[in-house]
Structure formats: structure tokens, C-alpha cells
Design brief:
The protein is α+β, with helices and mostly antiparallel strands. The chain has 19 helices and 34 strands. The protein is globular, with a radius of gyration of 29 Å.
């Protein structure tokens, strides 16, 4: 027999719009349990290891014998590793004694993550197995979460400890959930890059006929400038970028579907709003020409452009393209509002950064005029879609509020930084994300034949069109699922590999730095500080709230023994707190009210325990001031301790409350502050660690600053069963969004 106390498990039913129930989905699971108890929040002292037990002594008591027992006569507890199918009905793990005992035998057990994740792949239990006298076998129920996601083989651990009347042969037993690694993608039409034109817009491939690298020996738009040099042309840089694949992005598509399933009465409005930036050419053409617009679930007076129409339009599928950005009327950027953007469909003017333009070749080949305008190199152009507000909906009644929610505001952050001081040292968005090549001169076009024209102007300030940024994960998904997404005929795997390499190098060298100092040991307490410096012109991180940055810290002795570990991600990109933060306790509206304070990590200034992980992020709040992962339920932020750029000052005339520091970071004396002044663009975290274990030789502190584009709770927080949601979750199960290294620092203390 056995007695079991279930690890807290959440009710998996979400009350949606007061009437309809949907089954919630975990990272790699839908469904859940019928238990009403929530999963226990992370305990103090837990770290980022895969087994998030928080008990350093677990499994060490191998004898487990009670006083007076003779170890030589005690039976041995035996358990074999076993594999189950996810769909197995009521699977049991058999536990056997090597010989019968004349007295009662008991042993405690609990379940720990390995590659399988609690509440996503299995429901964790803990309890005590009891063998009556002469009883040889007992069993533990294994509660697997059976979903319709297709997954690779995953494993978790059943750990045995504190045996009474028996010895433990193997403290940890591995449970394998069999692979189910195929997925039926919804059919998607192949993208046709030579779609020609739609109203005022033309395909990027038509621009690429002349704005590509030369095929002759001139080296035009190649680096270095030889016939074998890398293609650095505008078309080649754009082709595999996030801009080109704005409508292919599986995460974006899943988020939009999640929002429309949550608010079906606003489906048309939601899709129209989102497509204005992810399919802007087709969206603008539809509204300017009053075509392909519908009234279904639409709050716009002139109608809404739908996702269904966008997926059938090659102009929409091309994302953010040449003739969108280069046709935006500079007069429509003051003030910077997406709704104000205008394109003159009759004028057909392509704006570029140069005044001494040759109009004839452009007109003869494309029927576009060309003009010089400084706005194409200003941050306002980027702000059109990178300063976004969304309407807010009251979570209590699903009615629209009279407020908007700042989804992202990199431009507003940039305004209040030293990147925008109004002098010659200012750096616009393009200066970092479309960098110029040093000591490089080239014409920026070739003839349609691919040959250079020696009479065309040579430019020495050519901005590359690779659009560097923090979204390597999108490029990975594009590369891995190009056929399923219908883009394999217009892209190359090597192109996405290049994007990933460039983006990772960009964030690892340009975005931030860290340093460890003030390392000292006194009375067995190790003290040190970690300084994080933001080198960007916006907050770190910036953009959509799914992004986060954090410190992972380890302390080791001369023998490599780990004395302290905090924030270290596992092989799925999760840290210890994600097990709870991404569970149903923290992503379902019906549960969050009772767990709100435990559903995110508050700003950390002083670290005394491994459970305190300095995480820099924004945490969305609904109208009840509870954590939410539903964008339209967003009303404000519970936390925004993303590190501001240098020069960010709440007393400045450039300051905007929309990008305020929120939460405990606003009270931290060295968060964006130094010498009683704001604007340092950095934070200092103070570590005070009591070393509990003996150690030998020098102590080494290793600190890594990690960046992750999609934290786990934003995946499990999508609770509906849409096809695009399931598609994205399956992609995550195969290739999770892994953390990327932004900076590292080391320090040693010798004795």
C-alpha cells in the first residue's frame, strides 16, 4: 500500500468570458489535472539545476535505517527505469523489496524535472510508500499529461529518500515519456517573391534586380570589394531578416490567434491592428483603396483587413519591405503615430538618404521617382511600428476601457537617452541596427544585367539592411520549418544561419557588459558586486514583454565544487522559477488572484539566497493588478526593471511616464543612479552568500548575463487550442527559445 500527498496541482479549466471553458495548454501539454491545489511556489534556496528540489541533502541517506536496524539484514529497495507512452492509462511505477521484512518498511519519494517539465509533461507527486510486513511490492501512480502536441522523448526523475526499515539501492529512477515527434502542419501557400506590384507597392525582388551585389569583378555591394566578396546589398541583407518574415513569424501568428480566441467579438479589429505592422503594404492598400475589407467582428468604421486575406496575398506575405519604408511621407511622421503614416499612391516617390540622386535609372526600371530625405536615417521612421499601444480590456467583464497599454516603446526610451542629446554624437536606431561598414565605399546599385556602372555615384556611408537585433530565435524557426511555412523557395538555410550568427554576435558585443568586483570573504560569508551596463539606446531588454535578461551566478572552489548556483538555465532554457511561473497557477486567470505575488520575481538588489535571481523584465498587469499574459488584458505593469539607457532621467523634459521604472527598482539606490544622480544606465547587484559547505583553495565567481526572447510563461500562457498556437508550441517542444549570452565576467579570491 502507499499513502500519497500530491504536489500542488492546478485546476486546468479556464473560465472564459464568463461562460465558455477552454482546456489550458502547458509548454508541451494541454489538459492538466482536476486537483484544486496550486503547484507550490519555488522554495527559498532552489537554484537553476534541472532537479528543482531545493534540498541539497536529498538522496544522501542511503541506509535510511531506523535506530537498532542491522543494515546487513535489511531488504533493499529496487526500482527499474521505465518508459511510458503519454497516452498510457493509469501507468504505475513498481517498487520492490529484495526480501520480505518482518516489520513495516517506508520510504519517501518525490518527482523532479529532467528534460520533462512538471505541469507541462507530467503532474508531480510526492509521498510515502509503505510496505506492510511480508509485502514485497508497492507502486506509485505516474500522472502524465496527455496532449495533442507532438514531442521528442522526455524524462523526469522519481527520487527516493529517508527509508525506514530498508536500504535504498538507487536513489533516483529515470522515467521516460516516449517520443511522439511528428506534427501535421496546416497547409500554407508557397510564397512567390516575384509578385510584381499591388497599388503603390512593388516586390522586394524587383528592387533587388538593381540593388544586389555585382556579378562582375567590380566588387560593387560586396565586402571586401572583390568578385568573391560577401553580398552586402540591401536585398541580400533584408531577404532573411525579421522584417522580411514579419508575417511568417510563428510566435506572432500564435499570439494573434490566442488574442482572437480570447476575444472573438474583436477578431476583425485585432487582426487589422496587428497586420498594420506585420503586413503593412497589403494593409495600407486595402484601407486606402477600400478593398478586401470586412465588417465581421470589426470596430473600424471602414472595415478590417483580415488574417485570412493576408495569408493569400503575396504583398502581405512579404512583411515589411522596400517600397513600404522608402515611400513613407516624411510629413506624416510628426507626431510619430502609426495611424498618421501616409503613402502617396500617385506620387510614387522612393525616399533615400542622398540628395545627389540619379532619377533616370530608377524611373526607367521601376516607374518610381527618387528623392533625398533625411528622415530615412532618423529614429522616427522606425518608431512607426516600434512604439505601440494596444487597447485595454477589463478582465472582469471583457469590456473596452478608456485606456491604452504601452506594449513596447523603444523610441520613447531612446528619446530620453544620450543617444538623443541633439548633437553630432547622436545615434539613431539605424546607426546600431543598420550599421555602416568602416572604410567602405561603393555604388549602391548595379544595372539589371548585374554589371556595375562606373558613372554612378560612389557612397561612403552605406547602411547595411540586415536589421540586427535580438530575435535569433525567429531565424532558427524560419530555417527549421521553411518548407512548412512556405518560404523554402525564396530563402536559403545559409541565409538564416548568417542572421543568427550576426544577431548573436551583435547582442554579445554591443548590447551590454558586466563586471564582478569587491570580492571578499569574511566570517564564511562571500561578498561581491556585479555591475550591469546597458550600452544600447533603449531599455535592456526592449520590445515585446516576452523578453527578459538575467544574471546566472556560480561560485566554485579550486576543485571545481559548486558552492552556490543561481539562475543557471537548463537544456530547455528554463530557470528554476519558471517551473512555477509558467505553471497553471500563474498563467490562468482563475488561479492568479491567489498566487499573484509568487508569479514573478520582484527586482533583486541584494542576493543572499540562490532563489533570488536578478531578472530584468516587464511584467504585464490586468485591471485587477494581477499578472497577465493576455495582451489586451494588459492595463499597466507590475514590474519594469529593464535597465534604462544612459541618460534616462525622470526629471528630464524628455521623460515620458509611459516608460517609467516600475516596482522595487524605483527604490534601488544604485539602479540607474550614481552619486545621487539618475542616468547611469546600469544596475549593481550585491551578493552576500553564506557558504554552507567546506571548500578548498581559491574561490571563483562566474557570472553570465543571459537574454531570452520568449520566456516560458509566454508559451504556457497561450491557453487556447488554435491550430497556429499548437503549431508554435510544437516548434517550442522541438527547439525551445534558448537563452543567449550577452556578457560574462569572472573573479577569483586566493588564500
Amino acid at each position: 500500500m502507499f499513502t500519497s500527498k500530491q504536489s500542488p496541482i492546478l485546476r486546468s479549466i479556464l473560465l472564459f468570458i464568463g461562460l465558455i471553458f477552454f482546456i489550458s495548454i502547458g509548454l508541451s501539454a494541454c489538459g492538466g489535472s482536476d486537483s484544486e491545489a496550486p503547484l507550490t511556489p519555488p522554495s527559498q534556496g532552489s537554484d537553476g539545476d534541472d532537479d528543482n528540489s531545493g534540498d541539497d541533502n536529498s538522496g544522501d541517506d542511503n541506509s535510511g535505517s531506523t535506530p537498532g536496524d542491522d543494515p546487513g539484514e535489511l531488504p533493499v529497495l529496487q526500482v527499474n527505469a521505465i518508459q511510458f507512452e503519454e497516452s498510457d492509462a493509469a501507468p504505475m511505477l513498481t517498487v520492490t523489496l529484495s526480501q520480505a521484512s518482518t516489520t513495516i518498511v517506508s520510504v519517501q519519494y518525490r518527482m523532479l524535472n529532467d528534460t520533462a517539465i512538471a505541469m507541462a509533461d507530467y503532474q508531480p507527486t510526492e509521498g510515502t510508500i509503505v510496505f506492510e510486513a511480508a509485502q514485497l511490492t508497492s507502486s506509485i501512480p505516474i500522472l502524465l499529461i496527455d496532449d495533442d502536441l507532438q514531442e521528442q522523448e522526455e524524462q523526469f526523475i522519481v527520487e527516493f529518500y529517508q527509508a525506514s526499515g530498508a536500504l535504498i539501492d538507487t536513489p533516483k529512477t529515470l522515467i521516460t515519456i516516449a517520443a511522439n515527434d511528428s506534427f501535421s502542419f496546416s497547409e500554407r501557400a508557397d510564397f512567390e517573391p516575384d509578385w510584381n506590384s499591388l497599388g503603390a507597392f512593388s516586390s522586394a525582388s524587383s528592387c533587388g534586380q538593381c540593388h544586389e551585389a555585382a556579378s562582375d569583378s567590380s566588387g560593387v555591394l560586396r565586402y571586401p570589394m572583390t568578385q568573391a566578396g560577401d553580398d552586402v546589398s540591401p536585398y541580400a541583407g533584408w531577404q532573411h531578416s525579421a522584417m522580411a518574415h514579419a508575417l511568417d513569424d510563428p510566435y506572432y501568428l500564435a499570439v494573434v490567434e490566442e488574442e482572437t480566441l480570447h476575444f472573438p467579438h474583436l477578431k476583425g479589429t485585432i487582426e487589422d491592428k496587428c497586420l498594420s505592422c506585420h503586413a503593412p503594404m497589403a494593409h495600407l492598400n486595402a484601407h486606402d483603396n477600400q478593398t478586401d475589407l470586412g465588417q465581421m467582428d470589426c470596430g473600424n468604421s471602414d472595415g478590417c483587413y483580415s488574417m485570412a486575406n493576408a495569408q493569400q496575398s503575396m504583398a502581405a506575405r512579404e512583411g515589411v519591405s522596400c517600397t513600404l519604408c522608402h515611400q513613407i511621407d516624411p510629413q506624416s511622421l510628426e507626431p510619430v503615430l502609426l495611424e498618421n503614416v501616409q503613402i502617396d499612391h500617385d506620387k510614387r516617390t522612393i525616399y533615400g538618404p542622398y540628395d545627389d540622386v540619379l532619377r533616370g535609372p530608377m524611373w526607367n526600371n521601376t516607374q518610381y521617382d527618387v528623392a533625398g530625405s533625411e528622415h530615412v536615417q532618423q529614429s522616427q521612421l522606425c518608431a512607426v511600428c516600434h512604439n505601440l499601444k494596444s487597447p485595454s480590456i477589463d478582465i472582469n467583464n471583457d469590456q473596452l476601457l478608456n485606456t491604452t497599454f504601452v506594449e513596447q516603446a523603444p523610441f520613447t526610451e531612446w528619446l530620453n537617452s544620450t543617444f538623443n542629446d541633439g548633437d553630432s554624437d547622436d545615434i539613431a536606431c539605424q546607426g546600431c541596427h543598420m550599421p555602416e561598414l568602416d572604410d567602405y565605399q561603393t555604388p549602391i546599385a548595379v544595372m539589371p544585367s548585374g554589371e556595375s556602372n562606373s558613372r554612378w555615384p560612389i557612397r561612403d556611408d552605406y547602411s547595411q539592411h540586415q536589421f540586427l537585433g535580438g530575435n535569433s530565435y525567429l531565424a532558427l524557426l524560419m530555417q527549421s520549418y521553411d518548407t512548412e511555412l512556405g518560404i523554402d523557395g525564396a530563402t536559403e538555410p545559409e541565409g538564416f544561419a548568417d542572421v543568427m550568427a550576426r544577431n548573436k554576435a551583435f547582442i554579445a558585443t554591443k548590447a551590454a557588459s558586466i563586471e564582478v568586483d569587491d570580492l571578499a570573504l569574511e566570517n564564511e560569508q562571500l561578498r561581491f558586486s556585479v555591475h550591469i551596463h546597458n550600452h544600447s539606446g533603449h531599455k535592456l531588454p526592449t520590445g515585446f514583454p516576452s523578453r527578459r535578461v538575467w544574471l546566472a551566478t556560480q561560485v566554485t572552489d579550486a576543485q571545481g565544487k559548486v558552492l552556490f548556483s543561481s539562475g543557471v538555465p537548463n537544456d530547455k532554457g528554463w530557470i528554476a522559477h519558471d517551473v512555477y511561473h509558467a505553471s497553471q497557477a500563474c498563467v490562468l486567470d482563475v488561479n492568479i488572484a491567489n498566487n499573484n505575488a509568487d508569479c514573478y520575481m520582484a527586482h533583486v538588489d541584494v542576493v543572499t539566497d540562490a532563489s533570488q535571481v536578478p531578472i530584468y523584465e516587464s511584467v504585464m498587469a490586468d485591471s485587477n493588478h494581477h499578472v497577465t499574459y493576455v495582451l489586451l488584458h494588459g492595463v499597466s505593469y507590475l514590474k519594469d526593471n529593464r535597465i534604462p539607457p544612459v541618460g534616462f532621467d525622470s526629471q528630464s523634459v524628455r521623460y515620458n511616464q509611459e516608460v517609467a521604472i516600475v516596482g522595487q527598482a524605483s527604490l534601488d539606490a544604485d539602479f540607474n543612479r550614481g552619486d545621487a544622480k539618475q542616468g547611469t544606465g546600469q544596475d549593481t547587484v550585491h551578493y552576500q552568500i553564506d557558504l554552507q559547505e567546506t571548500f578548498s583553495g581559491a574561490l571563483t565567481v562566474d557570472v553570465t548575463l543571459y537574454y531570452q526572447s520568449i520566456k516560458p510563461a509566454f508559451v504556457t500562457g497561450m491557453t487556447h487550442q488554435g491550430e497556429l498556437i499548437k503549431q508554435f508550441k510544437w516548434m517550442v517542444s522541438q527547439q525551445p527559445p534558448m537563452p543567449e549570452v550577452m556578457a560574462v565576467s569572472h573573479a577569483s579570491l586566493n588564500f
